[in-house]
Design goal:
Blueprint lengths: L26 H12 L18 H9 L3 H6 L6 H7 L7 E4 L12 H11 L6 E5 L4 H10 L5 E5 L6 H8 L7 E6 L6 H10 L5 E6 L1 E3 L7 H9 L5 E3 L7 H10 L5 E3 L10 H8 L3 E3 L13 E3 L32 H6 L13
Parallel strand pairs: 1-2, 2-3, 3-4, 4-5, 5-7, 6-10, 7-8, 8-9
Helix pairs in contact: 5-6, 6-7, 7-8, 8-9, 9-10
Amino acid sequence: MQKFKFRDNPNPKVPQKKVWKKKEPTPSSSSSSSSKKQTKKVWRKKEIPRNWLDLPRDVTESILQRLGSVEILKTAEKVCTLWRNICKEPSMWRDINLLNLYYWEGGPSDPLKMCQNAVDRSCGQLRAINIEYVANDELLNYIAQSSSQLRRLRLFDCYEITDEGLIEMVEKLPLLEELDITISTLSLSEETIEAVGCHCPHLKSFKWNHEDYRFPHIQCDEEAVAIAKNMPELRHLQLIGNRLTNDGLQAILDNCPHLESLDLRKCFNVTLSGDLGRRCARIKNLQLPNDSTNDCGFIVETSGNGSFEEDLPFWMLDADDLSDDYEYYYDSDISYDDYFSKYNEDWEYIVRPF
């Protein structure tokens, strides 16, 4: 009988025990698995675009109120019916800011009519209005007649307003609390300041500023004395570029005991020393004549350190600025064109960015 040799199991009577080993992945299998991971699809929920019309009405109104009045009238109210209806609500027009109407003056839109439209939409609920450049006496009267609840009024570079127009306006605004007028040419008369103090007993803030501070050597306390006599309840007074002297300031401090802030920037006829300086130092917020005007919201220019002949032509001067030798400009030997030709290169109109 042929004998067999058992190489694997020398003892055939004892069953061979199986040993399981982990199979090592081959290079080809590992690369295929990694490729599968790279191409694995990730499912995400599809984002649905938001519809502005789905916002709550009060949220939409709050957003639109952050726009300027001009932007609402020119663009926002034309977006859709909902926005147009919201823009017509009187609550949207309690605070009117007409800041850049200058760019539409003489164009297809009438700035004055735009102002009147904004006032009409307030339906008598107007509390504050801010107008730049385009206001005149007619517009002031229109505002006063329809907005007796007005608390705050700001007029910036509105050259067509007069003392008479301001007086007629304040007579109809008994609740006015803040009056802010910034201009470079107008001088308020004593009668105007008296009318403001008389007809606006709740006035707490008065700002009367000059952009162009001309001829620092000229002194005038009429406005300061009128303020002292007629506005005893003032808390805030700003007189940038005013010509008052220490006497005028003394009168203000004596008759306005509740002042919390006093702005005397560019008031170079005032010398804050001695007892006057100590009294001013007690005011909570005090701006001194040489303090920076970068934060005042407009450009303040100072000119006229010498004689007026060296600085401005006579036609740009107030009557009080003319000296005794003003007849020089009426010399028959000097023609109109020859005289003004030297100012052509020195004077130009600058449009300030908003």
